[in-house]
Amino acid sequence: MSHSLNEIEAMSKRAARGAGLSWGLSEEAAKGTRWLSAFGFPGTEMLTELLQMNDRIPPIDVSPVSLSADIWHAPTRRMSPLIAGASLSDCAVRLLERGTITMQNVSLPLLAVPFMGGAALRLGVPVAAEWDGARVATDGKQLCVQGEAEALRSKHAATLVFSAPAEMTGKREPVMRAEVCEDSWDQLGKFAHRTFAPATEESRLRGAGAGVSDND
């Protein structure tokens, strides 16, 4: 089914929050899902898979242990691409100074790519990410893709290397609407539903209808 990018972003934000992410990271996850969807990737499917994978896992367990280490890794040896990407964006200047930042055992690495856009805009140079069989680069506005679909949609990257400045080759054009897997949309809806506050006696009395009164 087809959805506008605005619909995708709104649903993704609510779902990420329902899965336990902070509002700030939920907003970033939603923007990233929208961004990937705009370039023809199954953003909602990948976000759904990640939320299911890390459901109720403390964020600290899937976050980089140290941002100053030569190689970033998470305590569980399974790093969230959302947290990894946000951390990379915060370390954009360090990336340019070093030339590369390497991460190990990153889940669904493509979900970290949208965060490169913010880093590229701040640095004023393109940023690239490479993992087994795939390479993507962005200047913050355009996306360049190299690799087979299977590699780009990999569920796990043993090594993920970010570099700057990067060469832009193989550009993709963005779209205004995206085809969304119905099952992934339903799953996002279930996560989003967690953000709804349960009804209380007071809220029921304030709602429509007669409440507990009897008008007969």
Q: How many individual domains?
A: 1
Shape: globular
Fraction of residues in β-strands: 15-25%
Report low-confidence residues grouped into runs of 5 or more: 202-216
- Average of pLDDT: 90
Order of helices and strands: EHHHEHHEHEEEHEEEHH
The strand order across the widest sheet is 2-3-7-4-5-6-8
Overall helicity: 40-55%
Please characterize this protein's 3D structure.
This protein has 216 residues and is an alpha+beta fold. The chain has one domain. It contains nine helices and nine strands. The protein has helices spanning 5-18, 23-38, 43-53, 81-90, 92-98, 113-123, 149-152, 182-193, 201-206, and strands spanning 2-4, 71-72, 100-107, 127-131, 134-138, 143-147, 156-163, 171-172, 177-179. The protein has a seven-stranded mixed β-sheet with strand order 2-3-7-4-5-6-8. The radius of gyration is 19 Å and the shape is globular. Mean pLDDT is 90; it is low at 202-216. This is DUF3726 domain-containing protein. InterPro entries: DUF3726.
How do the helices and strands line up, and which of them pair or pack?
Elements: E1 2-4, H1 5-18, H2 23-38, H3 43-53, E2 71-72, H4 81-90, H5 92-98, E3 100-107, H6 113-123, E4 127-131, E5 134-138, E6 143-147, H7 149-152, E7 156-163, E8 171-172, E9 177-179, H8 182-193, H9 201-206
Parallel strand pairs: 2-3
Antiparallel strand pairs: 1-9, 3-7, 4-5, 4-7, 5-6, 6-8
Helix pairs in contact: 1-2, 1-8, 2-3, 3-8, 4-6
Protein name: DUF3726 domain-containing protein
Pfam families: DUF3726
